[in-house]
Amino acid sequence: MVLKTIPALQSDYQMQDYDKLAATFDWKEAEKAFSWYETGKVNIAHEAVDRHADSFRKNKVALYYKDGSRNETYTFGDLKKKSNKAANVLKNYSTLEKGDRIFVFMPRSPELYFALLGALKIGAIVGPLFEAFMEGAVYDRLDDSDAKAIVTTPELLDRIPVDRLPNLETVFVVGDEVSEEGKVISFSKHFEKASNDFEVEWLERESPTLLHYTSGSTGKPKGVLHVQEAMVQQLQTAKWVLDLREEDVFWCTADPGWVTGTAYGIFGPLLAGTTNLIVGGRFSTDSWYGAIEEFGVSVWYSAPTAFRMLMGAGSAAMEGHDLSSLRHILSVGEPLNPEVVRWGMETFNMRIHDTWWMTETGAQMICNFGSLPLKPGSMGKPVPGIEAAIVDDQGNVLPPNRMGNLALKKGWPAMMRAIWNNPEKYDSYFLNGEWYVSGDSAYMDEDGYFFFQGRVDDVIMTSGERVGPFEIESKLIEHPAIVEAGVIGKPDPVRGEIIKAFIALHDGYEPTDELKEEIRQFVKKELAGHAAPREIEFKDKLPKTRSGKIMRRVLKAWELDLPTGDLSTMED
Ligand code: WT7
């Protein structure tokens, strides 16, 4: 389906002239928005919360929170006090110091925000962990980063293998009736009594803030390290791309366990002094449309997979909901199908703006701005201040309409600064020390719009979540029945891709449906629900290179009935 270009928005006021900005903008201009520009004292939690709490926004709502029976409102003034309390608890009941790693492993809730912001106030490095992670996944991340503390809930406590993590000193548990034994400290009990005041730890612009673990096609998940400086780009994109205004109510549907949920579920909007909505619980059409109506959401940031589910539910699901508060809709995580853009136009009479970026980029990079005509199927143009190009494997820039590696000129403010404990891996992202190579393939048209084509590597994007095949394969072969396993992403109309596993069994095991279910449960219990293969196919043998590497591209070709390509490296 081809959709015509949809004209620029008349009302967009944050960015009037893309071409002029793209030609002249310097990130130095954006720095003037921060108090450290004059004081030299840097802390992102201060800029996101305290600065507003100490201004005319003191009584402005910073957070609305809705989950089941909880329905709460916190002003910027409240958020300052609560994050100060959290900082005091973390400081007083652990040995955490500047630069130490603390994980936040809990469902989306105000307490998560207090703990995360409090940890940043004491200068710690925060590792957000998605609540669906199981023991194996939690262990890998805490072990790799030598975590000293974790904040969690009673329900998730069992998944933290405290005995196998000798350097993990303190486990803070949010909940009233926690017995303080061993490493366990009740966060809530001490939070009640903690002081509202806290002297923020002042840091450098290059001081680390967040450690987001993400998947690649090889090896265990890697820790992507971000720094304070990221705030410059997070705020600027909140203005230009999210188009946030003083009176907006902003809803980012992503969980803070993923980078979208921190960069734009916390920092971008709070840095801009915007009212945020947090909705707990699982996706349902009714609760989502209900939330937009109840809180008067005006700017909505979600993912194609969610839009496709809403689209599938049809207009009946919208009946009885007044969605007239909506003004601006954005998408991230996977290709935004023209089909969904058309649905957005028909349903909301509004454009859905695509945004392309990655955990490693730390903030939005290539986007459809309100002030640009929108070409359905394209993710838009680079954010002013960002240089993007399509390069070949040697780093030569290719002309328009040629497919190649989507690359970014090194040095933007929110760029990751390290892969934890793995400088070789970090270096491997860069070509000629100049281009960051994203792992996506794309092309750029003659008007400078970028079009996503696919991943260059085997990374799987399922329902907007990034999953590394290697992590699942490694887990699968821990199962006693499995000799070897190959995992691929299989295209799916709703989820983008689903996870499919090809499995060879040990002698004596029968390839039954019960065994498939057992294997699925095994991955679910050990890694995470979203990592469990939806489809499993048993094979006598898997295609491998002579050096023993599973050839996923051959599995994929079999699955999709495509030519298998060069098989010269395949063993007999
Ligand atoms: C990968 C990064 C931070 C964004 C959430 C995912 C894919 C991301 C788009 C888009 C097509 C997209 C890419 C990228 N991706 N946005 N607008 N169109 N693909 O972050 O988990 O680090 O995954 O997500 O393949 O490399 P992530």
TrEMBL record:
Extent of the signal sequence: none
Top-level lineage group: Bacteria
PANTHER family: ACETYL-COENZYME A SYNTHETASE (PTHR24095), ACETYL-COENZYME A SYNTHETASE 1 (PTHR24095:SF14)
Protein name, as recorded: acetate--CoA ligase
Gene name of the record: acsA
EC assignment: 6.2.1.1
InterPro entries in the record: AMP-bd_C, AMP-bd_C_sf, AMP-binding_CS, AMP-dep_synth/lig_dom, ANL_N_sf
Limits of the AMP-binding enzyme C-terminal domain: 471-549
Domain AMP-dependent synthetase/ligase residues, every copy: 51-417
GO molecular function: acetate-CoA ligase activity
Entry keyword set: Acetylation, ATP-binding, Ligase, Nucleotide-binding
Organism: Sporosarcina gallistercoris
